[in-house]
Amino acid sequence: MNLTIHALLAHLIVCTVVIHGQKATKKWPIGVAEKLHTFGSRLMKNRARDKSEIAAKIKEVSTQIKELQGSLKMVERTILTEIDRLLNYHQIMHELKTSGTYIDNMFRRFELYDDDTTYEDSTLKDFAQSSTSHSKGHLLSMMNLIYRLVNPVGNDNKGLFDLIMKDKTTK
């Protein structure tokens, strides 16, 4: 920076001297004006080259920023898609676990009902009703929920196998 200021100052002095028609006189020793002019011209020429180098660097950095911006947008889309897929997968797995636990508990209760034990009629009726009822939270609704988790209704819904296959294709 200082070199450029000195070069401009030297060039300004030379131009001032030439404009006023002063050459080597008492005020200027012989050859000083010519040396200042040569020095200033050389620095100004280098300044023009420096400008083109700076412009090339700026263009290069701008291109890299543009490429990076495109890459970041692609990564952003991928992350948003993956977050949605992972949330759906987590929700399905949670519902499968809850349903599976309920069905497993129902089966264990069923295994306890053998011919040698006696239970009250109300207990057996309750078990039979929960095994055959279509009400939410009973066996058939849980089985239907599991089926819908694997094979969802509608084009917009993704089932468990769809999410697993999408995971395999993205890796």
Question: What percentage of residues falls in helices of 4 or more residues?
Answer: over 70%
Shape: rod-shaped
Task: Give the SSE order as H and E letters.
Answer: HHHHH
Can you tell me the residue ranges where pLDDT is under 50 for at least 5 consecutive residues?
Answer: none
> What is the subunit arrangement here?
single chain
Count of discrete alpha- or pi-helical segments spanning 4 or more residues: 5
Head-to-tail CA distance between termini: 52 Å
Number of strands: 0
Mean pLDDT score: 73
Q: What class would the helix/strand composition place it in?
A: mainly alpha
Radius of gyration: 43 Å
Biggest sheet details: none
- Domain count: 1
Strand content: under 5%
In short:
The chain has 171 residues and is mainly α.
Protein model, in words:
Helix 1 packs antiparallel against helix 2 (32-112) and helix 2 (32-112) packs antiparallel against helix 5 (160-170). The protein is rod-shaped, with a radius of gyration of 43 Å. The longest helix is centred in the middle third of the chain and has 81 residues, at 32-112. The protein is mainly alpha-helical and 171 residues long. It is built from 5 helices and no strands. The relative contact order is 0.06. It has one domain (2-170). Keywords: Signal. Residues 1-21 form the signal peptide.
Topology:
Blueprint lengths: L1 H18 L12 H81 L8 H12 L6 H12 L9 H11 L1
Helix pairs in contact: 1-2, 2-4, 2-5
Keywords: Signal
